[in-house]
Amino acid sequence: MEKPPRAWALPGGKPAVVLGRSQHALELTRVLPIRRRASGGGAVLAGPWLLRAAVRLPRGHVLLQHGPGSLARWMGRIHLGWLQAHGLHGACLYEDAGQDHWACFAGQSPGEVMVAGRKLTGIAQRWQRAGVLVSAGTLIDPPPWALLCDALGRPASDARELDRASISLSACRGCVVDAPALAESLRTALLLALAAPA
């Protein structure tokens, strides 16, 4: 018997570097704790500036019928509606060809949330025989990108590139945001969407 879908959203915890599947063999300086995720994509600087969300689906679920691209857009649309409910009306989904980058928030993939060409929400997926995990990270505050660059031995100019390529919710709204309240409202949005996936 398949397990029912699950959804959760959490404010970021302690700072850490999270590496995508293709980056697991990188030699890193131990500036921060290192985590390795099973999904693809570029490196992420996790921490209190990042609100994380995920949905786990059984392999027979209707949302998986049209493949990873469709699932990413589903996750992106939920985030877009959630952001609009919190007063952000200038966001849109990225719909062009994917652009890989060593850092998640400087690359773009269809379904991710952008504001004026800058990435606000990144999406990753892990497809397995037992089920699929689709996860997202939304920048709620500007991250200290220099920490990520230091950990991966990247030049200071890369931190400036990440600043230009990404944007946070607090910067968009011009005010401090309530991370726990945002996480709870996003979890509710995910659960409502799962209740009516069509």
CATH homolog superfamily? Bira Bifunctional Protein, Domain 2
- Per DSSP, what share of the residues sits in E-state strands of 2 or more residues? 25-35%
What is the overall silhouette?
globular
Work out the helix count. 5
**Tally of structural domains:** 1
Give a short account of the largest sheet.
6 strands, antiparallel
State the CATH architecture.
Answer: 2-Layer Sandwich
Low-confidence stretches: none
Explain this structure to me?
This protein has 5 helices and 9 strands; from the N terminus they run E-E-E-E-E-H-E-E-E-E-H-H-H-H. It is an alpha+beta fold. The protein has one domain: Bira Bifunctional Protein, Domain 2 (BirA Bifunctional Protein, domain 2). The strands form 2 sheets. Strands 1-5-9-8-7-6 form a 6-stranded antiparallel sheet. Strand 8 and strand 9 (131-139) form a beta hairpin. Helix 1 packs across helix 5 (179-195) and helix 2 crosses helix 3 (156-165). The longest helix is centred in the middle third of the chain and has 19 residues, at 67-85. It starts with 5 loop residues before the first strand and ends with a helix.
